[in-house]
User: Fold this.
Amino acid sequence: MIISPLQQERARYQPKLPKSLRGAVKVVAGEKTQSVADQDEIARLFPNTYGMPLITFEEGGEQNASGPVNAGVILSGGQAPGGHNVIAGIFDGIKRIHPDSKLYGFLGGPGGLVDHKYMEITAEYLDDFRNTGGFDIIGSGRTKLEETEQFDKGLEVLKELDIKALVIIGGDDSNTNACVLAEYYKANNAGVQVIGCPKTIDGDLKNEMIETSFGFDTATKVYSELIGNIERDSNSAKKYWHFIKLMGRSASHIGLECALKTQPNVCLISEEVAEKKQTLHEIVDNIADVVALRASKGDNFGVALIPEGLIEFIPEMKVLIGELNDLLAEGSETEAGFKALAGDEERREFVAGKLSDASAALFRFLPAGIAKQLTADRDPHGNVQVSLIQTETLLGDMVKVRLKEMKKEGTFKGKFSTQYHFFGYEGRCAAPSNFDADYCYSLGVTASVLIGQGKTGYMASVRNLTAPAEDWIAGGVPVTMMMNMERRHGHMKPVIQKALVELDGAPFRYFAENRRKWAEETCFVYPGPIQYFGPSAVCDQPTMTLELEKNK
Ligand code: FBP
Assistant:
């Protein structure tokens, strides 16, 4: 493999570990835990893994003599920078337990376990992936592990390879399923532990014990660099309004973090739109007002950030999407009728005729391209694929129409030219920042200690993340502690609670206090690229979200 000079230097980077993980580890068990809600129901569903204590690691335990420990690892869902370092941490950790321990990677995500597709990860193979982005070391996938047949099929290969523990690196759904698997294997005395690891650039797998999911730091730094570059271009040419859609399936953490870093003129936060029950027209009017305000000062340019998940948070759109999901559910009669029609307009009318009056009116009003995107194939979970919907274009086009009206009314006297961007995949496989490289490696070593301690149904947790890495606190959190019951596809299910942007949280409050000034004046900040070598103040900074949350 040919690698760049930066990659060569980066390969030599030794991730920083918390003090407690550098030598022998003392394991301290805390109080018994409870789920965040629906305690009775969750306890009933997880009789073997509910209520376990929190675990914290401290320096200076005794190195217990142990035989080799074989472990398996799965990368689940969307890529996030740092996944390779989690695997490196697990590898080095189990080798520390015993040099003959082996690590197997299941290929292409959870499906690899079910289909018995795996490889042994050797030291030589792993070395090329240390401190690199991507999930290409073993590949990832979105197969859901939720059926007992899948669990049994997986167990066959785990037994064959003498694997004692499986680490599932994934988001909220994958970690929920990891816990279901842990419970099943424990209930059946399968002799396989299951440990979770918090991954997702979306940043929505977090709570009191999981301060952030890995990948959020790097991805938001990459997007902020790009946004800063566009802000500078916008401020130089002074002729375009840039509408930038940012990835993040549901929550707006990415948009908020990027706004805190770059101070754009507009940033929509989906959770606020939902809370205030804003309509599409209100959102458009608000943006048009900012455009007009800036134009009144001669500034016919600006930058607006749009979270990818916005569309599903606009109440009227949410209702429409819900109705469309039901109508176009795979295998339904309406889906067949819809697919039998060839023309887009014919299809639109066919669907509109079956919607409620309000949804039909909205559906007919939307630009043809957006209506088509809303009826496109669903993802494996039956959801609209929001990353495929061009919300940025929809809003830009609607703002244009509104500004024409305002021109007639005499309330807008400027120019409005747009450029559209979508930043998502650009950030998911970036070389991890020092923060993510260190955090991920620490998560991997933490997982190996949990394995060595015979734990199951735990998620690796590394906390105190705004302190220097040596003072980070590592340990394990029972996954059931993060669960509540939610309705999913018509059934109540135990799931890890998704963390949305809290409107009374410090990051949003800081944004809300400043956004008027950022709209009116040009306060752009140009963060520049991620720095890997240099002063710690430049290279090791965590996200502003974390800083504000910790210093609230
Ligand atoms: P995870 O929740 O699996 O980490 O993935 C999140 C994400 O990156 C979202 O931000 C985005 O909407 C989605 O994946 C895109 O999915 P895909 O990779 O299947 O296009």
Remarks:
- Residues 77-78, 80, 171, 200-202, 247-249, 308, 386-387, 428 surround 1,6-di-O-phosphono-beta-D-fructofuranose (CB under 6 Å).
- The mean pLDDT is 95.
